[in-house]
Every structure is written in C-alpha cells, then in structure tokens.
C-alpha cells in the first residue's frame, strides 16, 4: 500500500506543526513576504505605556536580555581566559571565547527567567501583541 506523496507531505506538515506550534504565532511576521519591521526603544516604551495587560510581560522579557548579555560576556571572558592560561593556543582560545559566550548567554537567560519569573507569564503573546501594535502604528498591512 504505497502512499501518495501528498498524503505523506500532509502528515509530515501536521507532525512538524505539532512540534513547532510556536511558529504559528509568529507566522505573519516571519513568512518572508513582507519587509521586517524595525523599531526603537521609544517604540517599546510607547507600547509599554499604552498596553497595561501585555506591557509587564514585554518589559520583563526585555530585562532578561540584560542578564543574558552579562552572562554571555562573563562566560566568554572566563572560558577564554582558562583556555589561554592552560593551552596558549589562539584558535583554542577563540573557540573557547565563542563557546563561553553561548553557554553564558544560556545560563544568564535561565537565571533571568527565574529571577523575573517569566515561566508564569506569556512573553510570546506579549511580543506578538507588540508586533501587531507596531504594524498598526506604522500602517503596515499584513
């Protein structure tokens, strides 16, 4: 019983949409048919002032990036320093710098998520509401 290509493709699409459900929320912003929106800190501050429901979640999510950036810098310098101390290898130090930045970003993000308790709120919904608000402000039709 050979299946047609369309039924296999349809089942694969359904399987992937179940696994990557969060892409549906962002689909109209990442579909590639429209030019990406650009915004500044003043746009974010205006949204935070205008939306009392989603503003705290967006503000907390933006605060967590400070934790992540600090963790990234700390991890990069620390791991690169250790690599240089023990190996004196420039390429090993460069790889350690990159790996330390990624690991530090991850740990900083997790620490920030727990500090600001982002696991309790819907930050993705707040980001989508911000992008929708930005579209309406700039007059872009989706």
UniProtKB/TrEMBL annotation:
It comes from Heracleum sosnowskyi. This is Succinate dehydrogenase subunit 6, mitochondrial-like. GO terms for cellular component: respiratory chain complex II (succinate dehydrogenase). It comes from the Eukaryota.
